[in-house]
What we know:
By secondary structure, this protein is mainly α. Among the domains are: 63-256, no CATH class; 293-409, no CATH class. 59% of the residues lie in helices and 0% in strands. The chain has helices spanning 5-11, 28-38, 63-81, 108-131, 157-172, 177-196, 225-229, 243-258, 265-269, 280-291, 295-307, 312-319, 325-344, 350-372, 379-403, 412-427, 435-473. The longest helix has 39 residues, at 435-473. The protein starts with a helix and ends with a helix.
Amino acid sequence: MQDVTERFKRSCAGLPDGRLVKMQGLGMLEAMNALQIGDPKMDTGVASSSNQQIYNPNISLSAEEVCWVIDHMTALEVAWYRGATLCQTVFTCIPCHKPELFAEQQGFVEQALRSYIYAYLKTIELAYAELSKGHVLDGEDVWLDHYGLPIEMFDDVDTILQEMDRGAHWALESNDPWMFELGKRFRVRAGIIRVLLAKSVDPPECDLTFTLNPGRAASLFDENMSRYLRQNMPLPTLSVPSHEEALNSIFEMFQDIRFAHVEELQELLWARHRRGPHLPLVRSVFKSTIMSKDSDWLFEEYIARQTGVIHVLHLMSEEIQDTERRQFTIWRDLVRGFYLNTCCVPLANPCRRRRIYLSLSSSWHERAVMAARFSGHNAPKVATALEALRLDCLLEAALGSWELELIAPSEEQCMWWWATCVAKQRAELQLKTSRQGEWACLWAEVGAAMQKVSSFSKELMKVVVGIGAIVDHK
């Protein structure tokens, strides 16, 4: 067999990286395959890795360098929570694949890093287990492909926490400032694990000092790891936060998950209005909390809050006629399921959230009409409360249009009119004071004001155009 390597090298000497030689008679199938071969996102051969430092498992790191490693691992973890893949983030840390290699080193810093890596991997396992419950969407909110690498650890979580607490205690007693910083990072990691285990809702108070000098520690990360693990799937754009931003994101996650442990459901549902979009992990924890509650209790609590009627399903069951019994049973099962879904809608991503609200508005209208037909004096009250749910869904869907930038400038006045009509109708319902009612009143006022602003802007534009026409004529 003849070696044609040199012949290919000479033929491609003037060809830049990522460019292809097109043969005569190239077909569509060959062209599609060629695009995959030449695309830097899909072809590992067109990217250069000459700047990558060689990893040495026997490297001796300083406490400052270990702090940088820990901070960078946290930044990669947050990047995964925000929607990057595991092969771009967590798996780029080479020691995470073989943490036992540090067991042979007797220095405290190396042993501390090994303990931290085990705790880090346990955190990833707990987060992966939560995200795998199906409360957020794989490939849409988060990427769960682990490329055949194991996620589950066989190390006991209590043993890992004991190691972290013991390491933090030793490091915090040191006179070395970077050893002290290392101890504080151990406390943060132990706090993350306890929060994910629902053993604690109070984050550790740590003011960390960050180092910008990775030194030899940069060799512990291989940014080309994704090329070894994936095949033909284009990767999403990677954005790794700074170390300080990553820590702030972790502490925000602490504060958000605290709402998942409150008894008051309304505090949980309205927590999303405190700040911007939550991480998929937080939304999954929220939904796990909601789904663990009894659907009858959730619906009856809502009706009691809106109308003042307690145990409404039991009362309606006693009031209806025998001919309505079968229809009532079907209606009751439907409203329980629909209300549970409605409670979870705020936890979906914006695009899906708007679509679900529009769908639920129709469903609640049908359930309200059916409730109004039942016998008894409680049925009209329940029908009014269900109508309020329909209007709440319509209002949230309308507001979601602006969040998704679906409204053209020429449509703004019409959309403000629609949002105002929905909000006013919701505010005029004879129900008890609630956050949803106050929310509707607020948007009714905002919508009315924005209609006036839009109308004034149009009149002002007409005047400006008229003045411009006069000037051009002169």
